Amino acid sequence: MKIVPQKLVGHKNFVRENPKSDRFVVKGFHHVEFYCGDALNVSHRFAWATGMRETSQSNLTTGNHLYSSRVLQSGDITFVFTAPYSKQLCAKELAPVEQGQDGLPAVPHPHFNPENARSFFDKHGVAVAAVGLLVGDAATAYEESTKHGGIGMLKPVRLVDATTGGVMDISEVVLYGDVVLRYVSTPEMPSDEKITDDEQPPQEGLKPFQGPFLPNYRPVEAPICTLGLTRIDHVVGNVPELLPAVQYIANMTGFHEFAEFIAADVGTVDSGLNNMVMANNNEMVLMPVNEPTFGTKRRSQIQTYLEHNEGPGVQHIALACDDIFHTLKEMRARSSMGGFEFMPRASDAYYQCLPEKFGEDLTPEQLQQCKELGILVDKDDQGLLLQIVTTPVGDRPMIFLEIIQRVGCMEVDQDGKVAQRGGCGGFGKGNFTYLFKSIEEFEKTFE
Ligand SMILES: [Fe+2]
Predict the structure, then answer these.
(1) Are residues 71 and 209 located together in one domain of the fold?
(2) What is the extent of the structural domain holding 360?
């Protein structure tokens, strides 16, 4: 079984294979949880900027005296924003609190540690603390991961929703730095493929939890509004050394290498990086990892990130949509009113070349909209990719979002549904130089 990448060969020499080597059933991304200093404010800014709506919360009003946590959703995307309460009050509350004000268990994540959350925020600022994966069985995932080098952070624990009786199992291992990979499963979720003999069969009488995020958050009634964001496409990490990080991930999960890019593929004259993309069997979980390269005129932007983050962490999250022109128009309209801003548009020369390269893929009107909205276009041998990135969404030059639309690669999945193959259209290799140049220009604004 081919599992562990041993060296970088670059985009040109890399041959993509899918050995379907997952060590346990992985279905897709489940959520991303950010730690922050104030969940109300940060979640509301993300909601306004992206059109995600708040669907549930846990805080003082639900009897949670340890932390405030708010869940935003759009399509299949779940973002969670969590902030600990006062250190002094948390110390008093750390004695077990059985029930909150409306009968819900007061603390939905029973192993939440306010001191860890506080020091995480102190060190990293607003940053991703957990990447959640929907797996066949969180206990098996934990067992397999820790058996193959994964550092355990939370042994499998069963959560039961007090209102619905729905059950969810979670477990956590280190992903990189202070970020955990959180495995999530519900007992009746059917496995679409059997990988290990010890995967737990559905247990009779257990009802799967079907609400947003974790059990025992209180649902929030909010009008359904969306800017069209549908799913998490990929979550990218920055680390000081690429090979040990991807070997660790590949070993514990069985994920395979989906793509790679070296400095010669992606760098500008001034700065660069190396990158490997890890993927699960169905390639719907795509987890690229970057490392800085050195010896160039400018410091690698990955190194800038690592210094501001005080170590490894999530660099960006790509969110897919079905109509990027609509989504971008709406997001750009919010930019000057507290929404997210985008990296400067590419040059006119970039857009002058698009008709020749993509005239068969996009109409003249669509190409014109790409120029007006600053959307970049690329394709590989499988499909078309439309993409744009925001500037960092917080104070530090760290985490940003990417908005993408993949076109093509439609196929019938195992359930007979027509679905798009993961990673269709690649990762915008043709745009890398421009993207990194634009980030260099952005960095010059604070030098
Ligand atoms: Fe990306």
Answers:
(1) yes
(2) 229-444
Paired strand residues for 134 = 28, 184
Q: Rounded to an integer, what distance in angstroms lies between the CA atom of residue 195 and that of residue 23? A: 7
From the list 237, 238, 256, the residue with the least C-alpha distance to 247 is 256
Long-range contacts formed by 408-415: CB under 8 A, 24+ apart: 408/382, 408/383, 408/384, 409/382, 409/383, 414/192, 414/193, 415/192
Same structural domain for residues 58 and 200? yes
Identify which of 388, 397, 404, 377 has the alpha carbon closest to the alpha carbon of residue 345.
Answer: 388
- Give the Å distance between the CA of 139 and the centre of ligand 1: 30
Residues 393-403 have pLDDT tens digits of 999 999 999 99
CB count within 10 Å of CB 226 equals 17
* CATH number of the domain where residue 37 is located: 3.10.180.10
Ligand-binding site membership of 411 (annotated): no
The reported pLDDT for the residue numbered 89 is 79
Residues in the chain: 447
Task: Write down the mean pLDDT value for the chain.
Answer: 89
As residues whose CB is below 5 A from the ion ligand 1, the structure lists: 318, 402
Domain boundary among 219, 238, 271: 219
Model pTM above 0.90: yes
Is 204 in the same domain as 319? no
415 within a domain of the structure (yes/no):
yes
- Whether 124 has a binding-site annotation, put simply, is no
When divided into structural domains, the chain yields a total of 2
Residues 198 and 239 reside in one and the same domain: no
Q: What is the distance in A from the centroid of ligand 1 to the CA of 156?
A: 31
What's the start-to-end Cα distance of the chain, in Å? 47
Domain boundary among 169, 198, 219: 219
The answer to the question of residue 389 being in a domain is yes
Going by pLDDT thresholds of 50, 70 and 90, the confidence category of residue 232 is very high
291 is in an annotated binding site: no
Within 10 Å of residue 294's Cβ, how many Cβ atoms? 11
Q: What separation in Å is there between the alpha carbon of 38 and the centre of ligand 1?
A: 27
Question: 209 and 335: one domain?
Answer: no
Largest Cα separation within the chain, whole Å, is 66
